[in-house]
Specification:
This protein is α+β, with helices and mostly antiparallel strands and 713 residues long. It has 6 domains: 8-73, Helix Hairpins (Orthogonal Bundle), CATH 1.10.287; 95-327, DNA ligase/mRNA capping enzyme (D-amino Acid Aminotransferase, Chain A, domain 1, 2-Layer Sandwich); 332-440, Beta Barrel (OB fold (Dihydrolipoamide Acetyltransferase, E2P)), CATH 2.40.50.140; 458-539, 5' to 3' exonuclease, C-terminal subdomain (DNA polymerase, domain 1, Orthogonal Bundle); 543-629, 5' to 3' exonuclease, C-terminal subdomain (DNA polymerase, domain 1), CATH 1.10.150; 644-711, BRCT domain (Rossmann fold). It is 35% helix and 21% strand. It is built from 24 helices and 26 strands. The chain has a 5-stranded mixed sheet. A 5-stranded antiparallel sheet has the order 16-15-14-17-18. Strands 5-4-7-8 form a 4-stranded antiparallel sheet. Helix 16 crosses helix 17. The longest helix has 24 residues, at 13-36. It is globular and about 90 Å long. It starts with 12 loop residues before the first helix and ends with a helix. Bound molecules: 2-(butylsulfanyl)adenosine. 2-(butylsulfanyl)adenosine (IVH) binds at residues 39, 92-94, 127, 129-130, 134, 150, 187, 239-240, 301, 320, 323, 325.
């Protein structure tokens, strides 16, 4: 987060919803970079901070938890299906420039570093930044030895067999003056037309389609079966190098041209200029051609041409000081809103989704966009997004779609002059499209205003809510069952194998007596079925707070689940107390609403959940099959007991999760952001806005060592 974030405690629901939307998009984009591209753009600490902020907001506004919330994603583990190759010369990333002045600053910085007067011309190359994935090709005596992905920059994956199927990659170099060791680097990508043709083929075969050419290229290159890679028309532009036994030339431009003599394809739009104005003119020229190019680009890269100067300039952290990527602004496209569909989430929220006439925005074919809720469609409230104040959306409208990076596309504007004459205002259904129950907008008890979200009242009789509930139950911060994700939840529900979460734990037993064994069903085999049963068995013992969180009770996110667990200590005491509180009065109710950090809304939701006979039955059935560990005893005499602690920056002796668990064991409350209520900030290197805020508020701040000293660990 670049701007100073507002305290979670002070967020209005609208702001929270908007921020959750941004966070979901941002985290998804980082996940894609990390998992699909092997090219993370943020440090682990920054990434963790985004996730923590998301969790903190969800804890406070559990009914705003989005269907695509990052807290629900299991997070693909980095696949290690390929051998590793250590890069002799690290593969770095590029610093970004977003406008002309950033480019002037860059050139100024370079000259100052070189101690050059400002008016001496500096020769730079300018070329498109290809939106693919980088690949390092090592040749010895002119023969291809290995191909490695970027990986984490230090170690990549050995994809040699797959790279050999790419026709732009020569197996043998041609031409003269070829050093003994040559490592050519460049970008693997898939052309836009080839991407569309491939997706058409997938669709015809009833297979899932790909999101964009870059992810497809990454997925295609990392296939275990090189025949699959060979069937994808991947291409390669050479633009850089790694290890070289000697350098045949002394300029960036010359080297890339030499690559062409050796048999590589180089980008035809590379130019060389010694004035910033000319660089910028070239940028504009490339930008104008962007839509008509057959490959995705996301900016223009400028590099100092003289290799001796490159060496002098060196690197700062993970990017060279001699290069910068001038990014293109977010892309817009105009299309038609063909329909509005309703998705029903776990808490019954009806989410309208725009169906669009497919249109390419920045290389991605977009056919859906988020519409949030009925107020947003009516043009009331922007949900924190580009506004079309006062203008409603109707089916048939001509709309402007906006997409920045990998984020979920949004409807930015509507052209009312093009609205069809027979178009009518859109009314969100007042019955749930999944189960037919009434869908209502509840009144917020505190504000007296109508909730922006319309919700199905069907509870678990609603199939959509039931499936979402199962997905939540198995998700990472809940039961975290390996190999049981959204797809499996949907399939099991559809096949009638799992109707509620208690059924998960009887699946194996029922399967052994079933005529249609799981191992024989679509998408399963002997191994995956038995792995799944093992994974389920592994969760028959579960921590108390995970158990509470997994139930998916409204307003009970992870934070509240922990507070309940800590307060009641074990599941028996918890169930007795909640039952006794059912009249919203008496000692048990008073005790519940007085738990520090629990508001009346969450307390009521908890009681209501267990008052529902169906829910109670499911919980009882669950408890027949599993053991819930009592909460860990927290010590009340620790120096941090009862204090609110915030961790920020990168921690070296413990992970964030460890730090959090440690603090909670000692009776502290861990918060995601600094506020007046914060007692202690533990700040590691790289701490930013939170540290600043803490010092403004006079919050006691210590470093990681101080934390260990204080807690005596
Ligand atoms: S030069 C030391 N040139 O952008 C920097 N990179 O953000 C070496 N990329 O990982 C990279 N087009 O995958 C360079 N013309 C280009 C590029 C380019 C795309 C990618 C590359 C790199 C990333 C850095």
């Amino acid at each position: 987060m670049s701007k100073v974030a507002k305290d979670v405690d002070k967020l209005e629901p609208e702001e929270a919803a908007a921020e959750l939307a941004t966070l979901a998009a941002e985290i998804a984009a980082h996940d894609a970079l990390y998992y699909q591209d092997d090219a993370p753009k943020v440090s682990d600490a920054e990434y963790d901070a985004l996730r923590q902020r998301n969790l903190a907001i969800e804890d406070r506004f559990p009914d705003l938890v989005r269907p695509d919330s990052p807290s629900k994603s299991v997070g693909t583990a980095v696949q290690s299906k390929f051998e590793k190759i250590a890069h002799e010369v690290p593969m770095l990333s590029l610093d970004n420039a977003f406008d002309d002045s950033d480019v002037f600053d860059f050139v100024g910085r370079v000259k100052r570093f070189l101690k050059w007067p400002e008016d001496v011309p500096l020769l730079l190359t300018a070329e498109p930044k290809i939106d693919g994935l980088s690949l390092a090709l090592r040749y010895e005596k002119g023969v291809l030895q290995s191909a490695a992905t970027r990986g984490d920059g230090a170690v990549g994956e050995n994809v040699t067999a797959n790279a050999c199927t790419i026709s732009d990659i020569p197996q043998k170099l041609t031409g003269q003056d070829i050093p003994d060791v040559v490592e050519v680097r460049g970008e693997v990508f898939l052309g836009k037309k080839d991407f569309q043709a491939l997706n058409q083929r997938m669709e015809d075969e009833g297979k899932p389609t790909y999101v964009n050419p870059r992810n497809t290229a990454a997925g295609s290159l990392r296939q275990l079966d090189a025949n699959i890679t060979a069937s994808r028309p991947l291409r390669f532009f050479a633009y850089a190098w790694g290890a070289m036994s000697h350098m045949p030339l002394d300029s960036q431009f010359g080297m890339v041209e030499l690559f062409q003599d050796w048999g590589f394809v180089i980008n035809p739009l590379m130019g060389r200029f010694d004035q910033v104005d000319d660089l910028l003119a070239h940028y504009r020229k490339i930008e104008e051609q962007r839509a008509s190019l057959d490959y995705d680009i996301d900016g223009v890269v400028y590099k100092v041409d003289d290799l001796k100067l490159q060496t002098r300039l060196g690197f700062v952290s993970r990017s060279p000081r001699w290069a910068i990527a001038h990014k293109f602004p977010a892309e817009l496209a105009t299309t038609i809103l063909t329909d509005i569909e309703i998705q029903v989430g776990r808490t019954g929220a009806l989410s309208p989704v725009a169906r669009l006439e497919p249109v390419t925005v920045g290389g991605v074919v977009v056919s859906n966009a988020t519409l949030h809720n009925e107020d947003y469609i009516a043009g009331i409230g922007s949900n924190g997004e580009p506004i079309r104040e006062g203008r409603s959306l109707q089916i048939g409208d001509t709309v402007t779609i906006y997409r920045a990076g990998d984020v979920i596309p949004k409807v930015m504007d509507v052209d009312l002059s093009k609205r069809p004459s027979d178009s009518v205002p859109y009314v969100l259904p007042d019955i749930c499209p999944a189960c037919g129950s009434a869908a209502v907008r509840e009144k917020n008890v505190k504000t007296g205003r109508l909730d922006s979200v319309r919700r199905c009242t069907g509870g678990l009789i609603c199939p959509a809510q039931a499936v979402e509930g199962i997905k939540h139950f198995v998700s990472r911060n809940a039961f975290d069952i390996d190999g049981f994700g959204e797809k499996q939840a949907e399939a099991f529900y559809k096949w009638g194998l799992i109707a509620n979460v208690a059924d998960i734990f009887t699946l194996k037993e029922r399967d052994s007596r079933s005529l249609t064994r799981l191992k024989n069903r679509d998408g399963f085999g002997d191994l995956s079925a038995s792995n799944l049963f093992d994974a389920i068995d592994a969760r028959r013992m579960i921590d108390f707070h995970r158990f509470i969180f997994a139930l998916g009770i409204r307003h009970v996110g992870e934070g509240n689940a922990k507070l309940f667990a800590r307060h009641y200590q074990n599941v028996e005491a918890f169930l007795t107390a909640v039952e006794e509180a059912s009249g919203f009065e008496g000692a048990a109710w008073e005790d519940l609403v007085n738990i520090d950090g629990i508001g009346e809304t969450a307390a009521r939701a908890l009681v209501q959940f267990f008052a529902e006979a169906h829910n109670r039955r499911v919980v009882d059935a669950l408890l027949q099959a599993i053991t819930v560990n009592p909460a860990e005893q927290t010590s009340s005499d620790s120096p941090v007991a009862g204090k609110t602690v915030v961790f920020t920056g990168s921690l070296e002796r413990m992970t964030r999760d460890e730090a959090k668990a440690m603090a909670e064991r000692m009776g502290a409350k861990v918060a995601g952001s600094v506020s007046g209520k914060t007692d202690l900030l533990v700040a590691g290197p790289g701490a930013g806005s939170k540290l600043k805020k803490a010092s403004e508020l006079g919050v006691e701040t210590i470093d990681e060592d101080g934390w260990f000293e204080l807690t005596g660990l």
